[in-house]
# Entry
Amino acid sequence: MPRRDTVPLYSTRHVAFVEAILEESNLDKSISSHLSVGLGPRANTICHTHSSWFRYKPDGSLYYKIPASDLCRKYGNTEPCGDCNRSNNKKYEPKTPASAGREILVKNEWTNPVTNEREYFGLKDAVENYFALNGTHAPNGVQHGHEMIQGKGISLGTLSDWIRDIATQADISATLREDRLREVVTINEDSSVEQIKDFGRDSDGNEIPDIFAHDMRATFATHLMRNDVPRHKAILKTGHKTPESMEPYVKFAEDEINAREEAMFY
# Structure
């Protein structure tokens, strides 16, 4: 059944989510969530991410390069996975041509959207500790690790499950998240689209918020708009077709800032 429209995390929840990633002991979960919120690729791209997609520049900076086309290596099979098998070329291909070939800096620092200060983000460290990286400019000690997440890639469902696990550990309230979704998502009781979902509780009794992988992509895009990145430059990192495609994220960021400003009125 189709899911609802994507809705990014508020800045406070965004910070809590990143903090939970840094505290997560399951490296498969943490790297999946970290890539999702830190680089903003589509879910299917994360599920197919291969160590060869990470490239070092001569200055030692690390980039994530999404190919226009690549062999499907998921699950260690010689046959392409279901998603790739449905494509014309039976290979991994990004959803749109605008997504192909883009490079995104893998960084260790970020601008905390609550404090507006530069803080440790740790994504570069996480990638270097998890994936087997190589290349002319790769430093010593990063050549050993996984070629794909969990060794052979993961499914879309697993990715969203892990992201919800991280969100639950971040104490992102399921009730407040539902309120947030109802503010943004148009509820149509007659629609076949499953708008808001109740995921129940985890094994410790914590409520699981309604979050899925594409919400992390929206959070990444909104963070670019918080930081006043020009739209024509932002789409080079997000893979959207036109600068106008960034308008929803501009609106999310503006509403968030306006709410913060209003709180200072009294």
Summary: The longest strand covers residues 62-65. Residues 117 and 191 are 43 Å apart (CA to CA). The radius of gyration is 18 Å. The mean pLDDT is 91.
